[in-house]
Amino acid sequence: MKDLRRLLALFAPYTRWMLGGIALTLVVVLANIGLLALSGWFITAMALAGLAHTSMDYFTPAAGIRGLAILRTGGRYLERLVTHEATLRLLSRLRVWFYQHLEPLAPARLQYYRGGDLLSRIRADIDTLDNFYLRVVAPSVAAFVGVALLSGFMSLFSPAVALINLGGLAVAGVAIPYLAHRAGRRPGLQAVETRAALRSTVVDGIQGQAELRIYGAAPRQIERIGTLTDALIREQARLSRIAGLSAAGSSLTTQLSIWLALLIAIPLVTRHALDGPDLAMIALFVMASFESVSGLPLAFQSLGETLAAAGRIFEIIDTRPQVEDPAHPAPPPALPALHCRGLRMRYADDAHWALDGLDLDLPAGHRVALIGATGSGKSTLINVLMRFWDYQQGRIELDGRELREYTGEDLRAFSAVVSQRTHLFNTTIRANLLLARPDAGEQDLIAAARQARIHDEIMRFPDGYDTFVGEAGVRLSGGQARRVAIARALLKNTPLLILDEPTEGLDADAERLVMAAIESAMQGRSVLLITHRPRALRHMHEVYILEQGRVVAHGAPASLAEMPAFAAYSQLG
Ligand SMILES: Nc1ncnc2c1ncn2[C@@H]1O[C@H](COP(=O)(O)OP(=O)(O)OP(=O)(O)O)[C@@H](O)[C@H]1O
């Protein structure tokens, strides 16, 4: 119920569109029923008039029939137009709303979700939510109002028939759909989950194709996909069986209701309490009235799927970001001077301290390197500085204020990060660069690329800056991709530059080129560099050696050169 209320609240801005759609649905249903009933009445009345050799006014009913036919067709057209417009508007709002909630959760809260699972929530679950209006709300409201109007009209002729009809409509529109919903709940839930699992497995399989082939695990992955597909087909078959049975039940109820109505109405005609043409009208009216509840079985069934999807969506929406912005943020920082005192951070309450009393000073314009064994907390420090994760104890001061006083956005606007995993989007080099500064001109792009030592190579591509880099930049070499990332960071032109093992995984030539790019990028900025490469340390003012989240030594590179730890950690790469 709570999820239902929340769903309705989400749709509130489109109430007018939705009410318009419902009103039109109702008009179409009523016009259809009216058309059938009036036609039945008209044909019978004409026949009886012919038999009795009496005259009758056939203009009015003929005009009525024509009017209802036009109303039905025009109404259907408008109904489709309005309901689809409402649906599309809703859909785009839901996607944006979901993404806006998703973004602050990255990366801390999202690391436990699989990529395919998130994709599935964004796409399939939102689509399913969208059904809520088209398949659940609109048909239910239209049925409710429609049945009330129809029963009122019918009781003018025969309250008993109206009652029978109401009973039949309740069975076909409520009892059968309810039973079908009960029966379809579990397979409905399972189908949503299996579909999500299938999507994650397929996405994983595509992304990890190379590994699956190298380790000969592709057949197992295929088998997993096969098993999930079979499960999905079984669940869908169960849902279809339930849908089929409920359709058959509804149809049986319709026929029985017509029989019962006739059983009651025929004696009324013999007793002259009802006209002959009215009998035909009543029979057709009863038959057609079931159209008003025809959407309900699907509505009940969709309700299960919609609620399951809503549950999955709300689960993410209700997750609080790991780091929240302060209620009254300080103005953005200006001076890139950073000081950490007794900094402690762990990823979970029961995890060990990834940073365990870290002290570090990065004066404005200085270059500081961090070295240390794997797992010593170097990347964690960056996660904390970027406000992706919060720290539990100690202080971080930036430009004289505690880091927590700034908004995450201001902090990220103040710094650029280049890491070995910097993502390039599957678009052109130009678009990848412009990500950092959408309003940058051609000359800015070229200047940044030149400084990152990549311009000449870009110009050698046939399409220059308009070269497509492929998925995650696969069409560039590792060194080229890294230099495009550095150019992007340069274009952002921030006072603080953070480099997380920017030359990791590159061969000596590529490393040399990337280092040249980095040297030029470091000019005039505060720099925090994580590296194992001794070559990079030459340009640093100070080197910090980390062990288990703590600084064990720091000083100018030359002063540390004799330390065994320095030699060990600066040559690991
Ligand atoms: N996202 C995370 N969730 C939970 N624990 C994490 C996460 N990232 C890192 N850790 C843990 O925190 C500790 C420090 O990891 P961190 O990545 O900061 O080390 P690092 O010095 O950067 O290592 P490397 O040189 O291998 O990159 C490790 O014990 C690691 O397992």
Automatic annotation (TrEMBL):
GO CC term (a single one): plasma membrane
Membrane-topology descriptor: Multi-pass membrane protein
Primary location: membrane
Subcellular location per the Swiss-Prot or TrEMBL entry: Cell membrane
UniProt xrefs under Gene3D superfamilies: ABC transporter type 1, transmembrane domain (1.20.1560.10), P-loop containing nucleotide triphosphate hydrolases (3.40.50.300)
Chain ranges of the ABC transporter domain: 338-573
Keywords of this entry: ATP-binding, Membrane, Nucleotide-binding, Transmembrane, Transmembrane helix
One GO MF term: ATP binding
Domain ABC transmembrane type-1: 19-305
GO biological process: cell redox homeostasis; glutathione transmembrane transport
Transmembrane segments: 7-27, 33-52, 132-154, 160-180, 242-267
Keyword Transcription regulation listed: no
Protein name: Thiol reductant ABC exporter subunit CydC
Organism: Acidihalobacter prosperus
